[in-house]
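ARCHIVE ENTRY
Sequence with per-residue tokens
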Amino acid sequence: MSSKCRRPWRESRELTASVDMKKAVTNIQLILNQQGFDAGKPDGIMGAKTKNAIRSFQKANGMTPTGEVDEALVRVLLEKNKAAAAAAQ
């Protein structure tokens, strides 16, 4: 996927490209909460609290605050999570 193609993820009960979206959203919520952005209970649902946490995280990390999950957001979340895990060791 090119960086110009920024399609947001949509919540779904189906598996998309072998990704369980509810599990993916739960993981995003967990990382957001660990990073100090209140996404609420990690339940896999893209509610208002999760979207607001995503917007705040995006803004704090120099990204366009859309509140949507896209490839760029996932990449930065995973980098932050990896750095936090390394610092904890």
Summary: The chain has a mean pLDDT of 86. Helices lie at 21-34, 48-60, 71-88. The chain has three helices and two strands. The radius of gyration is 13 Å.
